[in-house]
Design goal:
Layout: E1 2-7, E2 9-11, E3 18-19, E4 26-27, E5 33-35, H1 37-51, E6 57-64, H2 68-78, E7 82-87, H3 94-108, E8 112-116, H4 127-135, E9 139-149, E10 152-159, E11 162-168, E12 172-176, H5 188-194, E13 199-203, H6 235-244
Parallel strand pairs: 1-6, 1-8, 6-7, 7-13, 8-12, 9-12
Antiparallel strand pairs: 2-5, 3-4, 9-10, 10-11
Helix pairs in contact: 2-5, 3-4
Length: 249
Amino acid sequence: MKILVAIKRVVDANVKVRVKADGSGVDTANVKMSMNPFCEIAVEEAVRLKEKGVANEVVVVSIGPQAAQETLRTALALGADRAVLVHTEETLDSYHVAQVLAKIVESEKPDLVLLGKQAIDSDNNQTGQMLAALMDWPQGTFASKVEINDGKLLVTREIDGGLETLEMSLPAVVTTDLRLNEPRFASLPNIMKAKRKPLDVIEAESLGVDLTPHVEVLKVEPPAERKAGIKVASVAELVDKLKNEAKVL
């Protein structure tokens, strides 16, 4: 079985993002970038399936600037076998990403596509579902457990009333949730080995996808600053403020 994992390069989750002065987006100059945490979980799951003998090849693909090669090398250090960068300097919306991934899927012909359920920068939660629709493949979203039994894919996901397990045929698309696994750290020997693993670069324009934007970002604003707290002298004063000022009682 071949597994294709789509990963995205985003601002590191531990970095406090800054909005550009003109409100056109987030300032990424000199900011630490990392693999999207949900994508890291998808890579980990693919590697675990390979270690169990379920899969025999894990291919990671990313869409973005040349700097995304660094993120792909990280995935290779975590255990992926080879990588593909679809190079573009443009910021693509979810539909374009799904279209580009569909082209890669048609070329690579994987049995399973794993993606993070969403990216922490755009927070859209759309690409996996769109990709499944474009490929006309079954999909399992928000996966907290992934199993392969007798050629069938079992995906367990959390719902309001508990857990739901879906059975689907392969090939399929699965998006990963936080509870699926805990990603490993790349060891130094594996980081060194990753430098020698194959990484192909494809120009996005060569895939024949119309990348004319469908979505325009009008303005980006930072969240409103929280007001400083106050100290009260007694419980009675606290109750009075909650009742008469905050009006929550």
